[in-house]
Amino acid sequence: MKKDWAKDFYKMQYEFIGNYGKDFYEVSAVEILSQIGKPIENLLELGSADGSLSRALSNKVSHITTVELVDNLVEKAKEVNPVNINAINGDFLEIDLQNTYDAIIYIDGFGLGDDSAQLNLLKNIKQWLKKDGCGLIDIYQPEHWKKADKIEMYVDPKNMPNIKRRYTYDYKNDVMIDTWWREGEEETKQSQYLKCYTLKEIKDMFEAAGLQIIEYFTNGAMDYETMTYTEDASSEKCMSYRIKVVRS
Ligand SMILES: C[S@@+](CC[C@H](N)C(=O)[O-])C[C@H]1O[C@@H](n2cnc3c(N)ncnc32)[C@H](O)[C@@H]1O
Fold first, then answer.
1. Domain membership flag for residue 118
2. What is the pLDDT of residue 3?
3. 109 CA distance to ligand 1 middle (Å)
4. Which of 104, 106, 184, 205 fits as disulfide partner to 44, beta carbons 3.0 to 4.6 Å?
5. Domain that holds residue 57
């Protein structure tokens, strides 16, 4: 697996697609607040890209901190963030945060690197979580990504007719590989590598970090035969599932 791909890949991905639009994040914010299930004063978002989700949460949560690896995404966020968001450019594996949070979210991104990197992140999350706080983390679901193996498609045929992607699944390491390029320009190919975990594997890993899973939500699924997306997918079909965790 190529190392240190993350900054270049997410910078390129943002240049191609930007964000998903305000409505998408408004819906996502409502869902997240309902999954947290109680009023919160402060929240930490990891892997926050251009901060769109945190902005959608910012009228319901008094203080938000975001941590994002790609510097120009953080700059973009700072240009439009309200004053109650503190946007930090940094690596969540290395950053030293002194505060603790009522809620920590990592939406659509968990699984970079090997198991020891995930474990280090989880130990950080435990340290940053208040005693009665909770975390919401999306985990890529292996059975979905096995079915996506070798599927090639346009990322968004309507809005970006020349951007292609190809999924491959590394069965040995349970890693989904998502490669993007501009059609006809093979040299622009860049990939993200995300490790997929079953619920049992993830439970064991979270327990090792001192975190306990208390709820589980499935996210949507893509059917690659009909090329249709379903919002409510089963646990065997979903692209990812969201877990709610507390300190054990
Ligand atoms: C797939 S994107 C998801 C963005 C956003 N959470 C969303 O749902 O739209 C993952 C994000 O995590 C960021 N990221 C990856 N590794 C990181 C790290 N070690 N520290 C901070 N951010 C990281 C990436 O740069 C990218 O913006």
1. yes
2. 60
3. 6
4. 104
5. 6-139+202-219
Q: How many domains does the chain have?
A: 1
The reported pLDDT for the residue numbered 158 is 86
Ligand 1 nearest-atom number relative to CA 47: 12
Q: Judge if the beta carbon of residue 40 lies within 6 A of ligand 1.
A: no
Mutational test site, ligand 1, from 11, 46, 64, 75, max ligand atoms within 8 Å of CB? 46
Gap from CA of 94 to ligand 1 centroid (Å): 14
Closest C-alpha to ligand 1, atom 2:
109
- Does some domain include residue 185? no
Helix (H) or strand (E) holding 107: none
Q: Within a domain: residue 196?
A: no
Confidence class for position 19, pLDDT limits 50, 70, 90: confident
Q: What integer pLDDT is reported at residue 2 of this predicted model? A: 55
Report how far residue 212's alpha carbon sits from residue 150's, in angstroms, rounded to the nearest whole number: 35
Kindly state whether residue 238 falls inside one of the protein's structural domains: no
Q: Measuring CA to CA, how many Å separate 17 from each of 13, 20, 90, 155, 164?
A: 6, 8, 22, 9, 12
pLDDT tens digits for range 167-182: 999 999 999 999 999 9
One-letter amino acid of 6: A
Task: Give the tokens for residue 124.
Answer: 């950080």
List the CATH number of the domain containing 103.
3.40.50.150
CA distance 125 to 95: 11
- Neighbouring residues of 7: CB distance < 8 A, sequence distance ≥ 6: 69, 70
From the list 216, 163, 169, 167, the residue with the least C-alpha distance to 185 is 163
Q: Are 79 and 45 in contact (CB under 8 A)?
A: no
With tokens 């208390």, the residue in question is 214
Residue having the nearest C-alpha atom to atom 12 of ligand 1: 47
Q: What is the pTM of this model?
A: 0.96
